Please model this.
Amino acid sequence: MLLGGRELAAQPTRFSGPATALGLAGAVGTTTTAPTTTSVVTTTSSTTTTVATALIAAWMLDEASGARVDWKGNAANNLAGGSVGNDTTNKMEGTASALFTGSTTNLNTSSSNALRFLPEPFSCVIWARQTSGSGIKEVLFNAGSGTGWALEYDWSVVKYRVALNTPSSVLIPASNTNAANAWFHVAVTRSTGSPGTTSLYINGVIDAGTASAFVTNGGTEFALGANSGSASMIGQLDEAACYTGALSPAAVCRICSCGVRGEQCTCSGATFTSTGRNAGACGSCALPADCSASLIP
Model:
């Protein structure tokens, strides 16, 4: 039980518009080979699909209050904001982040939204900053009794972790501590297989993972910052997105470095002429070799 490839012009070009290719493992329309396991991390090789096709929804979380709008323009994926405010000082993208104060209010989809039934394979990414608290706090929550998953922060060990209800609990903690009052780019990917693999990425690098059974959430909720009235975090969240398919390590690094919308980086043909957050917050993770081959939409 849970505790809580369009080629760019020769001049530098900002990422915009559809992408041509992205590394995704187990995405819809791809052919996936058998997983290869090394210690605690399982990887899956596959053909590629596009980020534009794979992106389900993205939230920049700049709004001062109320609903947080899906950047793709699908109003059905807007998040109800309740009393969640914003922070224009502590942010990683855009003009603000979503500010959580430990109250029971979260950012949540409508009761019939498809994100509440997110099936494998999938990936979700988010920037998170914890400021204070105790126990287990929810960052992304897509779980019910014996179903789904959650991205959490465990104050007892000062680490992010993934928790699965499968229906027994499977916990996948980060390998190192994730200090309070610091921003971390955290990603969860889930591939298909017998069984599939759940992986945790920290700052664009795969950090931990395990193969286990998975039961799709039965529609309980898809929420940011708290579950149904409890395990409410104190801190900020920014630039969240979910995708069909298990993002490749290079794709996760690119999103961390360049942003969900890609505006943090520029390309000149296949060459990165600027790498955004890569050398800073994303720890020089391994970007794709071809800048034009996996554009973020």
Confidence is low (pLDDT under 50) at residues 1-48. The first strand starts at residue 13 and ends at 14. The radius of gyration is 18 Å.
